[in-house]
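User: I'm putting together notes for a lab meeting next week and I want to include a structural view of one of the chains we've been expressing. I don't have a solved structure, so I'd like a prediction I can at least talk through. The sequence is below, exactly as it appears in our construct file.
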Amino acid sequence: MIIKIQSDKQKAKSLIEIARITLKRLKETDKEKYPSNTLTDYYDIIRKLMEALTSLEGIKIKGEGAHKQIIDYVCDKYNLNQAVSYFIQDMREYRNRISYEGLSVKKDYIKINAERIEEIISVLLKIIDREI
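Assistant: Thanks for the context. Below is the predicted structure for the 132-residue chain, given as C-alpha cells.
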C-alpha cells in the first residue's frame, strides 16, 4: 500500500549511510566465500536506497508485498529498465528463500552477478545525489 507522507530527508540520509556502511563492509569481505550473506547484504543495500528515495519523495510503502511494490515503484519512477526490475525482484525472492527456507546461494551467483548488482547500487546512488 502506497501512502503519501511528509518528505523525510533525515530518514533518507540515515538509510543511505547504513547502505554505504554495509557496502563498505561487503567490500572488505570474501563475497564468494559467503554467497548467501553477500546476496542478503546486496539486496538490503538496494532496498534501503530505494526506501531513501521514497522517503525523499514523501512516499511510504507498507503492508503485504511492500518490498515487491517499492522495487516496482522506484524502477518505474526513475526509469530503470524492466530487466533491472526483474533482476532485483529475483534477488528479493532469493533473499526471502534464504531467510525463510534456508536456501544456500552458490558462489557462482555472486561471481556472475556482483558487477551488475554494484552497477545498480551505483545508479541508485546517482539518482539519490540528484534528488537530495
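A couple of points you could mention at the meeting. The two ends are 25 Å apart (CA to CA). The first helix runs from residue 9 to 27.

User: Perfect, that's what I needed.
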